[in-house]
């Protein structure tokens, strides 16, 4: 079985209140109706691909939590509670990768639900030759990466050492 890393940018969110550019207002932005539908399509897409995370990292912002809530009904029940990690909000790619590297050793599949520009930059950092990533991570985009050296293995990948040397982009989709 392959180790899988899933990067998901939150679905479309409402604009912040007029003139309020505070972090508090940004974190409180809910999904739009279209964003809610996109989150469900992402869940359906994951189910159709047979992808279900063992470990979930999610920004605590409302739009990322709502995106995760929209896709979870389409997946196998999680064996562990999602980790709502403040360090994912507005994080650079290195900080996102550091959170992924903390995934438990038994996790075969890790899902990170986050924001741009960090998600897009992390995807590009992990697989700089993937031309699909040239179009950027629009809201509701999913990048599926496979950990090298895990084909046919009965063990989960060593997430503590994952980086651009052992992860490659398999699929990039906007469900």
Automatic annotation (TrEMBL):
Highest rank taxon of the organism: Bacteria
Xref: InterPro entries: His_Pase_superF_clade-1, His_PPase_superfam
Pfam family name, one: His_Phos_1
Annotated PANTHER family: OS09G0287300 PROTEIN (PTHR47623)
Protein name as catalogued: Phosphohistidine phosphatase
